[in-house]
Amino acid sequence: MEVTISKYSFVFQPDEVGMALVDDLKQRLRQALAERFPDKTKGWYHSCNSRAHVTICAFEGDEKKLAAATLALQEALAYERSQYVYFDHFSSFPTGAYYIAPTVHARSYLKDRARKVVQTLAAFDLIEVSDEPHISIGRRLETGQLELAKAVLRAVDLSFMCKGVHVRRYNPDMKQYEGLDFIGFGNQSKENSGQLSFKF
Predict the structure, then answer these.
(1) How far is Cα 47 from Cα 3, in angstroms, rounded to an integer?
(2) Gene3D superfamilies of this UniProt entry (predicted)?
(3) What is the sign, positive or negative, of the torsion defined by CA atoms of 75, 158, 98, 138?
């Protein structure tokens, strides 16, 4: 029996309102790039079609490996708590990435949750581990493209309730990730986890 190997990505993801907001920002940048650089491919740039997400990590494997990883995360995230996170400004990386950055408090919360995920999945040969929470607008932008992005996209106000980890599978035909599963934070209290309940 042939085993299919796929690439799976684990991310935090905004709600539909947040997703639509980021889609709009990406399209605004694409339109601006198409007008400024008409010789380019209609304003296309890396990540322009990718849905909003905060990358945690990824791995390659079959469905059996994914099932084991999912079970491990369900157990590990039982005591993690949901929380509103806020992204309130743009920033960039030296690699040419332009992104939406979280507040200091949200960054700390997301880094802690992401660290828990990475530690839990450490035995699964992880790739693309990200230790800086952000929502990409564009990647590998050339100098002129990045300067235009900074001029066009100046202010942002995005927030959502971070309730757990989304699992995505890469579709090689579409060259995009597709939503596959969701592993919610259990919001359980450790204080009560060891107590026994008796009925009289």
Answers:
(1) 30
(2) Cyclic phosphodiesterase (3.90.1140.10)
(3) positive
- Neighbouring CB atoms inside 10 A of 183's CB total 20
DSSP class of 52: P
Q: Which two tokens stand for residue 139?
A: 């990647």
* Cα 88 from Cα 66, distance rounded (Å): 34
Question: Nearest Cα to 159, choosing from 10, 12, 17, 2?
Answer: 17
As a whole number of angstroms, the distance between CA 94 and CA 141 comes to 10
For the chain of 200 residues, list the mean pLDDT of each consecutive stretch of 10: 89 97 97 88 90 97 97 97 98 96 98 97 95 96 96 97 98 93 92 49
pTM for this entry = 0.91
Any idea which residue has 């929502």 for tokens?
135
Residue 191: both structure tokens together: 């204080």
Provide the token pair at 151: 């001029």
* Lookup: tokens for 67: 């099932």
DSSP state for residue 137 in the 8-state scheme? E
Rounded Cα–Cα distance for residues 136 and 99 (Å):
4
* DSSP β-bridge partners for residue 183: 165
Amino acid (1-letter code) at residue 15: D
Domains of the chain as residue ranges with CATH: 6-183 (3.90.1140.10)
